[in-house]
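README, section 4: Worked example with a bound small molecule

Sections 1 through 3 covered apo chains. Here we extend the same pipeline to holo records, where the ligand is supplied as SMILES alongside the sequence. The molecule in this example is NAP. Nothing else about the input changes; the structure line simply encodes the ligand pose together with the chain.
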Amino acid sequence: MLKLPATMTAVGFEAPGAPDVLRPETLPVPVPGPGQVLVRVAFAGVNRPDVVQRQGFYPAPPGASPIPGLEIAGTVAALGEGVTSLVPGQQVCALVSGGGYAQYCLARADHCLPVPESLPLDQAAALPETLFTVWHNVFERGWACEGETLLVHGGTSGIGSMAIMLGKLFGLTVIVTCGGPDKCAAALRIGADHAIDYKASDFVEEVKAITGGKGVEIVLDMVAGDYVARNMKCLAMDGRHVTIAVQGGVKAQINMAQVMTRRLTLTGSTLRARSDSFKALLTAEILQTVWPLVAQGKLRPIMDQAFALEEAAAAHTRMEAGTHIGKIVLAVA
Ligand SMILES: NC(=O)c1ccc[n+]([C@@H]2O[C@H](COP(=O)([O-])OP(=O)(O)OC[C@H]3O[C@@H](n4cnc5c(N)ncnc54)[C@H](OP(=O)(O)O)[C@@H]3O)[C@@H](O)[C@H]2O)c1
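The generated complex, written as structure tokens:
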């Protein structure tokens, strides 16, 4: 076992607010329970849900750490009772339900993925949240199959960039929308087949033109609001609409006759609230289907910028400014 300190630095907030509510604090190093491991965090990924949590609109679920941070990479420092799949000193990345913005973080052993030698830890920390979210929503809820076309909004976001790369690795044609020509150019460099500047043109008309009027089989939507009706116009017969965020508003007015006559499916999910056993199954599936591509260097996150743990407020400010491309991470070690 590695020698553990009694306390650690973590970054949390007392009350919701602007980025500067995020402050370093000293907390006891957590003790792993049955099925858990303690990870000495090297890097923690920053995700939009952390920003929404800090703003007070996405509280930590019962039992989860109130410290933000949904994904980490680092070294296993201690094992909880019954853990046999990992050893102390092993490098892992993990999906966690909170607590990532800290020097030490608890993770369930069955939510950890081994970090291949070729994968730097900053990149490892930038993978779990978007990989798990996109895999589940595009391929499991959206039933994406090779040869189909996927429309993704926010093409240069953490989620959007992962959707482009996974889509291409699994045989999809990927159309994205982005706010501005620079982001469109970046999305094309990441691998999108088509990038639509939604500020300069109507994405519904553009999708119609790109698909020769057929439409796309799947929409991965992080906007909602009035986008839902417009997304439905982009869907082909038997199309699937998957909601993962409601940045444009929670209410949508849609034509239910279209759902019937064009046999559309509307679904969605949030990852953080899912059960431990669901996340363990998803981890096992990703280990089998996607992790070999990571080990071979065929899938790497698009990295935007790294900030020191103590500069978490600056990382949130950058994310809220919306000019980032890909993933922001916190360097902890
Ligand atoms: N359901 C889940 O399980 C789950 C899990 C993780 C993340 N999410 C959600 O997925 C979204 C992306 O997360 P992230 O961490 O990748 O965040 P991010 O990198 O900050 O990306 C947010 C993106 O949203 C786009 N956007 C915002 N408002 C828009 C609007 N009105 N119209 C079109 N695009 C808009 C922006 O694209 P432009 O700059 O191009 O406009 C931006 O790229 C967030 O809303 C997050 O809460 C959901």
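What to look for in the output: Residues 47-49, 52, 129, 133, 153-154, 156-160, 178-179, 183, 222-223, 244-245, 247-248, 269-271, 319, 322 surround NAP (CB under 6 Å). The longest helix spans residues 128-141.

Section 5 describes how to batch many such records.
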